[in-house]
TrEMBL record:
Family that this chain belongs to: Belongs to the CDP-glycerol glycerophosphotransferase family.
Organism: Ancylomarina subtilis
Xref: Gene3D superfamilies: 3.40.50.11820, 3.40.50.12580
Membrane-spanning residues: 12-35
Gene Ontology MF terms: CDP-glycerol glycerophosphotransferase activity
Predominant cellular place of this UniProt entry's protein: membrane
Name of this chain's protein: CDP-glycerol glycerophosphotransferase (TagB/SpsB family)
Subcellular location: Cell membrane
Stored InterPro entries: Glycerophosphate_synth (IPR007554), TagF_C (IPR043148), TagF_N (IPR043149), Teichoic_Acid_Biosynth (IPR051612)
Amino acid sequence: MSNKLIKKQQFVNFVLKIIFLHIVIFILRNFYYLIEKLVRKDKRIALFFLTEKYYYDNSKYLFEYMRQKDEFRSVLFTANKRLYAKLQEKFSGEVVYALSLKGLFLFLRTKNVIISYGISAAPFFPYYLHEKCNHIIYLGHGTPMKKMGLQTEVWQKYGKRYQMQKYSYMVGCSPLEQELHQAGFGMDINDVWVSGLPRNDYLLSAPKDGELVDKYPFLDQKVILYAPTWREETESAEFFPFQDFNSEQLDAFLEKEQAYILLRGHKEDLKRADELSRFDVSKMKRVLKADQDLFPDVYELLPYVDILVTDYSSIWIDYLLLERPIIYIPYDLEEYKKSKGLFLDFEKNTPGYKAASFKEFRNQIETYLQKPDEHADWRKNICDMYHSHQDGNSSERVFQEIRKLNR
């Protein structure tokens, strides 16, 4: 089949998928609206709807905070059987399997649904989160520097915006983020709480878990985490995209510095499993994989990280709270601006070295290891812009907002 015919068939399949999702979501939306009106809601239930296969991120940290309070019955809710079984071992009686009658009845009675992932309504299937029946509280999973939701071209095509999950409330870290969420998700600005993110409470306490070091002894040396973002509309991120890259020289350099580089591909890139996301580390001694299978929750890893290497990922914005150096590798900046779009000047608002070659990259690591305070004032200024609260009380602020909704 010619490339022209293949592309035509791919386009037809894409359009059919869009039409199918439109129909399914339309049916679910009206079905749940009718049936939920027949069931009395319980404002004391806080349902943490997990759509990922791991237990992590803001939902994890807010759940563990709220379960200590007596005001709500906090429940973890998942359709992933493996995750359900694992959570039952730790939180017996506080986890419900979503694809069960018990799960259905609980969902129908629930007033407060709390989520960290789900821009589209599709991940919640066979449930539908109806904003007229529930308080849908979106904690999110990253402070953005890139455009999101309705600000991007992908959500403007083929009526896809009608598949977007509607939220009742969102959380953010600053007035800047408040405005971005308003524009990206069509929110009333007053419904975006400038509370800070629950996961950052953990980061600000920067605990180092002795068990993690016992399991991964390299965490006791200098650690450099390399974590690029997901490129939704283009190819996966490329590790070490330098023409002069030399893996033997990198290994020797890291040996001299008694350091390790941990590669953490984006979870969506790992699903693609293409050549770029499969960077081969088998012949390198001091460059290791640190994907979600090893470290499901990157926030447990970050306290060990001495230098962060990234590009446009929001991880660096949270990492600012640790006051440690950041190196950026924006090798495809112009392409990324066209496909995704940035709302701030990249060079001015990313407080760290930009590496365009292997030689630069190696020298910048050496500098930051010797002088971790290099660019400290720049990082502080950007940190203050993105984080209105740096006190470790974000979970409490979100909890108080949820309390107000249910008085």
